[in-house]
Amino acid sequence: MVSPADLVNAIVSGILVGSVYSLIAMGLALIWGVMNIINFAHGDFMMLGAFIAYWMFRLFGLDPLLCIPLSFGTIFLLGVLVQKGIIDRILEAPLISQIAATFALVLIIRYGAEAWFGPFTRRIVTGYSGEVINLGSIILPLTRLLAFVVSIIVALALYLFLTRTYVGTALRATSQDREAAQLHGINVSAMYKLAFGLGVGIAAIGGVLLSTFYPIYPEMGAYFCLLAFIIVVFGGFGSVFGAYVSGLIIGVTQCVSALFIMPTLKDVVAFLLFILIILFKPTGLFGKGG
Q1: Coil, helix or strand for 41?
Q2: CA–CA distance, 111 with 168 (Å, rounded to integer)
Q3: Contact 232, 128 (CB under 8 A)
Q4: Which of 102-111, 193-202, 257-266, 277-286 has the lowest mean pLDDT?
Q5: Three-state SS string across the chain, please?
Q6: Percent helix, percent strand, percent coil in the chain, to nearest 5
Q7: Which residue has the higher pLDDT, 264 or 288?
Q8: pLDDT digit string (tens) for 265-278?
Q9: What ranges make up the beta strands (E) of 73-129?
Q10: What pLDDT, on a 0 to 100 scale, did the predictor assign at position 289?
């Protein structure tokens, strides 16, 4: 029988891990909202962020959380190059061409990493990896609590950037109406590069946070990319902050359902919830009809 304490712990655990899902999904929502393109390689950019944290820890003993600026900056620049060299050439192409190109990018990144790093599973074990904070009957793993705090900071920084800066306003204008943005003097091409770089850079931060409590391996991006797509559609197409809330909901759904069914089936419950939302509100929780 599930006790109230177990239920509360499951909800808290779901919020903590869901915050990392949210970060990854926010990056995808930003790309989707501004560029209207499906980036199947999103999870693999996240994986690269996790590997940067791993190798900095392994080679130099650098704490994963201190690697966040390095991972973000590196993957941001890689994203800008990919957008300029590949994505920009397929923006006006048929949907099937966009899918094929980004799927080819998946294969290049994923199996390139596997060839370079090997198909092994790695873990980062820091001095605080096994630490927990006890708040009465609530148990908070320190690594997940830190991941939650960082995700809040990143989400707030992105919110302020998009709403309080000229460049952020230009990004939002580009997502709403590209032609009108061009008429107002906004460099749409630069906005696309920025959106793609920011999107995959934020995913890389999610990868760094995952590396503190989740195994690291070249194919880890596949699962999280699927989860990010579900969260983005769940929250509403292109809604960055709808993605954040939806990521928390998916995290809580997974952890609570694991109390009542086999833990291996928790993803099935999340997918069923996603299907129900799509059936009754096709635009997602925070999407707009039109």
Answers
A1: coil
A2: 35
A3: no
A4: 277-286
A5: CCCHHHHHHHHHHHHHHHHHHHHHHHHHHHHHHHHCCCCCCHHHHHHHHHHHHHHHHHHHCCCHHHHHHHHHHHHHHHHHHHHHHHHHHHCCCCHHHHHHHHHHHHHHHHHHHHHHHCCCCECCCCCCCCCEEEECCEEEEHHHHHHHHHHHHHHHHHHHHHHHCHHHHHHHHHHHCHHHHHHCCCCHHHHHHHHHHHHHHHHHHHHHHHHCCCCECCCCHHHHHHHHHHHHHHHCCCCHHHHHHHHHHHHHHHHHHCCCCCHHHHHHHHHHHHHHHHHHCCCCCCCCCC
A6: 75, 5, 20
A7: 264
A8: 888 888 888 788 87
A9: none
A10: 52
pLDDT at 290 over 50: no
Which residues lie below 8 Å from residue 162, measured CB to CB, with a gap of 6+? Answer: 168, 169, 171, 172, 240
Residue/partner pairs of 159-164 with CB below 8 Å, 24 or more apart: 159/241, 162/240
DSSP letter for 216, please.
B
216: tokens are 């690291």
Q: Binning pLDDT at 50, 70 and 90, where does residue 208 land?
A: very high
The angle subtended at Cα 110 by Cα 109 and Cα 115, nearest 5°, is 95
Per the DSSP assignment, residues forming a β-bridge with 216 are 122
- How far apart, in whole angstroms, are the C-alpha atoms of residue 70 and residue 235? 29
- Provide the percentage of residues in the chain whose pLDDT is more than 90: 70
Domains along the chain with CATH numbers: 4-280 (1.10.3470)
Say which residues have a Cβ less than 8 Å from residue 263's Cβ, sequence separation at least 6: none
Comparing CA positions, the residue from 105, 110, 120, 146 lying closest to residue 54 is 120
The token pair that represents 68 in the structure block: 């966040």
For 126-140, the pLDDT digits (tens) are 999 989 999 888 999
Tell me the two tokens of residue 193.
């590069």
The b/e string for 124-139 (b: 16+ C-beta within 10 A; e otherwise) is beeeeeeeeeeeeeee
